[in-house]
Design a protein that fits this description.
The complex is a heterodimer of chains A (about 290) and B (about 375). Chain A is flat and about 75 Å long. Chain A contains 13 helices and no strands. Chain A has about 290 residues and is mainly α. In chain A, helix 3 crosses helix 13 and helix 5 crosses helix 7. Chain A has two domains: about 55 residues; about 210 residues, MetI-like (MetI-like fold), CATH 1.10.3720. Chain B folds into two domains: about 230 residues, Rossmann fold; about 120 residues, OB fold (Dihydrolipoamide Acetyltransferase, E2P), CATH 2.40.50. Chain B is built from ten helices and 21 strands. In chain B, strands 6-7-8-3-9-10 form a six-stranded mixed sheet, sandwiched between helices. A five-stranded antiparallel sheet of chain B has the order 13-12-11-14-21. In chain B, helix 2 packs across helix 3. The longest helix of chain B is centred in the middle third of the chain and has 18 residues. The two termini of chain B are about 40 Å apart. Classes of the chains: A mainly alpha (about 290), B alpha+beta (about 375). The interface between A and B is medium-sized, with 16 and 23 residues.
Chain lengths: ~290, ~375
């Protein structure tokens, strides 16, 4: 009696979970199958139907020949633009965040808590507010419409978050470690390098995933601060979808969207296990 | 070499003065214990010696060098922390060698030192493990190994045993004492445990509110306390304090409905003070069952109405009242069994080591 009741409960839970998983994954499924169909099949067939043949032409078109606004080189050049923007932004903002967090958590000075509070405020400033002043500033220092300009915007905006992550991670580590290392003759950077960095893997993974996703998916900064040759892939995707040369090419749009989203997906799949672990690490350690 | 000389050291945070003019002269090779209740400034003083906290005023010498302005690394000291503070990502061997590595010792010398230290502390089989794979006692050893490796002029121990369970604590205590005998290096050791202080120290500095109350040998601290605070803090169970009226150079005690007069040593000082009321300080082991072989002028026989007994094994503590104030007597277990159930028993009071305190200031008379 109780056993069958339990079994029913189980079945209910699993079917519920399965139902939600399907709802969540349905758009991805539609995108995938559509990207492998040709226009004719899309127009006549069912949106949920599997493609008749695996047709990669939409993918190669999206990658190398689709038109994004004026020119027709596909997403490829913009994909590399995004890489050139994301990698330095990610590395610089993460390293600065780690160093900031290390100082704010372990080398408290007069006003350090105030400084941390001020930095935190940076997490809550909406993008739109800083658009104009930042554009002025970039023009003034001669970085408007350049990759370094966009990188510095992402770094400045990201440092608030990365600092928060690292500070909260390092604050759980007893200050006696720093004291012990100082007595051992290690200086500020030696302690950071030998003692703190080696135990920071979980929080690095969290920060990297967070920053990668944020910067890769950014559209607003990308569209405002980039020039014609430095647009990130999100902007190019928008242009590609909005450029219509004789009818909507849904298959190309879908393939392009998947290409644009793929890197974040890969990063999450590779490091996602650490993500959840890292987010809770501080809480468990106490 | 490792002598420490502290002159007029003060330490303030904003408006609060935590250390109020500390003067200590610690000989080379001496085992000094800083003891006191929490918040007395003992850990701050140790951090000042280590250089981890800046000194507000005063001077600090190690050997012949004025180290007041030197960084922790330049002072040639090593410290064992309460939480051990082992580097979690490094192996035991690297934990021990890190200080040498930072000081750029040659590689073969580092390896030899690690082996030597590991052998001394019997942790050779643990060298490749991470701190998280060690038990509390093993971590304690590694923390000591890290301090030993550099053979510094001074060791600082900051409550090193307080995270261990009672049995291990006693074991490690003995081991630290042996280690000190063997190395002969100056040790400054902070604790709030007065038993640890008594057992380990060559000399004890008892602190309260940022002031050294007394700085002398364990024997003197125990038998000749400078004031009521020291007398109360050192010793377990702690000293009995009873307000008494002075009568003919003797102290009047009412116990079990009777009036007795206790003779006291050094009655000249009491006369000179002219006080009519004093606080009598008498350790529990001086109030016992009658022991005929101990007769002397300072022995008084009287009675005690026992309210509660606490057997500790080797002896039994009996609680009664003198002048309506609670006192403890230390009875043999056999007498302790009889003393149960609110009985009144014969006791003998030995006042040869009684100490008297001023009723207001708490200072010794």
């Amino acid at each position: 009696m109780t056993q069958s009741k339990q079994l029913m409960g189980r079945a209910f839970i699993y079917s519920l979970l399965l139902g939600f998983a399907i709802i969540y994954l349905a758009p991805l499924y539609v995108m995938l199958v559509t990207s492998f169909k040709d226009i004719e099949e899309i127009r006549t067939g069912n949106i949920l139907a599997l493609p008749n043949t695996l047709n990669f032409s939409a993918w190669s078109k999206a990658w190398s020949t689709a038109c994004t606004g004026g020119d027709c080189h596909g997403l490829a050049p913009y994909f590399w633009n995004s890489i050139r923007i994301v990698v330095p932004s990610l590395v610089i903002s993460t390293l600065i965040g780690a160093l900031n967090g290390y100082v704010l958590a372990q080398w408290q000075f007069k006003g350090s808590n105030f400084l941390f509070g001020a930095l935190l405020l940076g997490c809550f400033i909406p993008f739109q507010v800083i658009l104009l002043p930042m554009a002025k500033l970039l023009a003034w220092v001669g970085l408007a419409n350049t990759v370094p300009g966009l990188v510095s915007v992402h770094v400045i905006y990201g440092v608030a978050f990365t600092t928060l992550f690292f500070r909260n991670y390092y604050v759980a580590i007893p200050n006696e470690l720093v004291r012990a290392a100082r007595l051992d003759g290690a200086g500020f950077f030696a302690i950071f390098w030998h003692v703190f960095l080696p135990m920071s893997t979980p929080i690095f993974v969290v920060t990297v995933i967070w920053q990668f996703t944020q910067i890769w998916n950014d559209f607003l900064f990308g569209v405002v601060y980039s020039g014609p040759g430095t647009q990130p892939i999100t902007v190019a995707l928008n242009n590609l979808v909005n450029t219509s040369v004789g009818g909507k090419q849904y298959n190309v749009d879908m393939a392009a969207a998947i290409i644009a989203a793929l890197p974040t997906l890969v990063v999450y799949l590779l490091a996602g296990k650490y993500f959840v672990r890292g987010l809770t690490a501080g809480a468990v350690k106490g | 070499m490792g002598a420490i000389n502290i002159q007029n050291l003060t330490k303030s945070y904003a408006d609060t003065q935590v250390l109020k003019g500390i003067n200590l002269d610690i000989n080379n090779g001496e085992f000094l214990i800083l003891v006191g209740p929490s918040g007395c400034g003992k850990s701050t003083l140790m951090n000042c010696i280590a250089g981890l906290e800046e000194i507000t005023s005063g001077d600090l010498f190690i050997g012949d060098d004025n180290v007041t302005e030197l960084s922790p690394a330049e002072r040639d000291i090593a410290m064992v922390f309460q939480s051990y503070a082992l580097y979690p990502t490094m192996s035991v061997a690297r934990n021990i060698s890190f200080g040498l590595e930072m000081r750029k010792y040659p590689k073969h010398e580092i390896e030899a030192t690690v082996q030597e230290v590991a052998k001394l502390l019997q942790i050779e089989h643990l060298l490749n493990r991470k701190p998280s794979q060690l038990s509390g006692g093993q971590r304690q050893r590694v923390a000591m190994g890290r301090a030993l490796a550099r053979s510094p002029r001074v060791f600082l121990f900051d409550e090193p045993l307080s995270n261990l369970d009672a049995k291990l604590r006693v074991e490690m205590r003995t081991e630290i004492k042996k280690l000190h005998k063997r190395l002969g290096t100056t040790i400054v050791y902070v604790t709030h445990d007065q038993v640890e202080a008594m057992t380990l120290a060559d000399r004890i500095a008892v602190m309260k509110d940022g002031v050294v109350q007394q700085f002398s040998s364990p024997y003197e601290i125990y038998n000749d306390p400078a004031n009521r605070f020291v007398a109360d803090f050192m010793g377990s169970p702690s000293m009995n304090f009873v307000d008494c009226v002075v009568f003919n150079d003797k102290l009047v005690i009412e116990s079990a409905g009777q009036r007795d007069e206790l003779p006291i040593p050094n009655s000249e000082a009491l006369q000179a003070s002219g006080l009519e009321n004093v606080i009598l300080g008498l350790r529990p082991e001086m109030i016992t069952e009658p022991k005929p072989y101990k007769e002397s002028t300072y022995i008084t026989h009287m009675q005690l109405a026992v309210q509660v007994t606490e057997p500790t094994g080797p002896d039994t503590l009996a609680f009664g009242e003198w002048n309506q104030q609670e006192i403890q007597a230390r009875l043999s277990p056999e007498i302790g069994v009889q003393a149960e159930n609110h009985s009144t028993i014969d006791i003998q009071v030995d006042t040869s080591k009684a100490v008297l305190f001023h009723p207001k200031s708490g200072e010794r008379i």
